[in-house]
Write a structure and sequence with these properties.
Number of helices: 18
Order of helices and strands: HHHHHHHHHHHHHHHHHH
Structural class: mainly alpha
Number of strands: 0
Largest sheet: none
Helix content: over 70%
């Protein structure tokens, strides 16, 4: 009995912390005025869902749940909403000018189906709901059938897969249109979306251990962890709560650009003219020295439509946009590393001067283009 009391005390403390952080974080995200407030709205809704999951446990520990027993299973009822909200959060961060459409409401159909299936439990007497929650706390037995819990887990996995696919597409988009990729944005989205896998982990552990009560503890720990994680990120990396860099065009815009590319009527002479114009611009204006250079920015400088610019770099120069720009940066760095005028420069200073914004990306790309590290290259030129 002492162990049980200590466990409840520990969980009650976690619930109190999680509830406080969740409420204040939701208020912050809703009140915060930002250029990315639309994405932050979905984030606020997700955090509020996490907070609601913790609410019954907090009320039970404070001996208040008996007064509002209808909140006992609220977390289970709203769980199917979590997947679409996280998916929309990812979409709002990675897609330019994303707005909800009427068709997006179809994502909430699973939630409505579960509400219909659980209608009897939803409208059950308050005493019965409270008794079910006491059984959950004492024995870890949920009032929902196993097949329904499996169905909710399946829905969560599907939305994690949809979110992951969108994040990977965003990473590929950055690789194709940007020469400087900050992977922390995609890593943050992956980590945040992984909260959808919590029920799968819980059910797997329960199946392996046959210890039902472990599910309650892990749910509490996981959602407190995710709320705390968002709080820490808001303090340490506030840039993740502003507009993501170089977001993708909408589906329709991308399809139009792709059709233009595929049905391009550019003659060879026009392509050669564009290539000459591009090379002249890159040689004399040196746009590659801008660390955050994107395809659209270069297209504006060269005065060539972005889809044509991408086409001639791929077809005539036979490089990706990133490799094309980075090849100039590497040549600039190679010249500096062997020029006595820059002998007082460190390798990282040389990297920044050549247009790179991190030591790791410079080292990786230098080895890719020269098959040597910068230090090895310097030694080889002195032999």
């Amino acid at each position: 009995m002492i162990i049980l009391v200590r466990g409840i005390t520990f969980l009650s403390t976690l619930l109190s912390i999680g509830l406080f952080l969740g409420l204040t974080l939701t208020a912050f995200l809703l009140i915060k005025q930002s250029r990315k407030s639309y994405a932050n709205l979905f984030l606020a809704l997700v955090v509020s869902c996490y907070t609601i999951f913790l609410l019954p446990g907090y009320l039970y520990g404070a001996h208040l749940l008996k007064s509002v027993p209808h909140l006992s299973s609220i977390g289970s009822f709203i769980f199917p909403v979590l997947g679409p909200l996280i998916y929309f959060y990812v979409k709002a961060n990675t897609r330019r000018s994303f707005r909800l459409r009427t068709s997006d409401l179809l994502h909430f159909v699973p939630f409505l189906i579960f509400i219909v299936l659980d209608w009897q439990l939803l409208t059950a007497p308050s005493a019965e709901k409270y008794a079910d929650y006491e059984v959950l706390v004492a024995e870890g037995i949920f009032p929902f059938p196993v097949w329904e819990r499996l169905a909710k887990v399946l829905v969560a996995i599907i939305y994690f897969a949809l979110s992951a696919r969108l994040i990977l597409r965003y990473q590929r988009h950055l690789s194709a249109t940007s020469t400087s990729i900050d992977r922390s944005y995609a890593q943050w989205l992956f980590l945040f979306s992984s909260s959808l896998l919590v029920p799968l982990v819980v059910m797997t552990l329960v199946a392996l251990t046959q210890y039902q009560l472990i599910s309650v503890t892990i749910f509490v720990l996981s959602f407190v962890f995710f709320i705390t994680m968002v709080y820490c990120v808001a303090l340490l990396r506030p840039s993740l709560f502003h507009r993501f860099p170089n977001r993708m065009e909408s589906e329709s815009s991308r399809q139009i650009a792709q059709k233009k590319y595929e049905s391009s009527t550019l003659r060879e002479a026009q392509k050669e003219q564009m290539v000459a114009k591009l090379l002249t611009c890159v040689t004399h204006q040196k746009p590659y020295l801008e660390p955050e250079l994107t395809l659209s920015q270069l297209a504006e400088q060269v005065d060539i439509p972005a889809h044509y610019l991408s086409q001639i770099i791929n077809e005539k120069i036979q490089q990706s946009f990133g490799d094309f720009i980075n090849s100039y940066r590497i040549e600039k760095a190679k010249n500096m590393l062997t020029d006595d005028q820059y002998s007082h420069y460190t390798i990282i200073a040389t990297a920044y001067e050549a247009g790179f914004n991190s030591k790791s990306s410079f080292n990786n790309l230098f080895k890719k283009f020269t098959h040597q590290t910068p230090s090895q290259y310097i030694k080889s030129t002195k032999l």
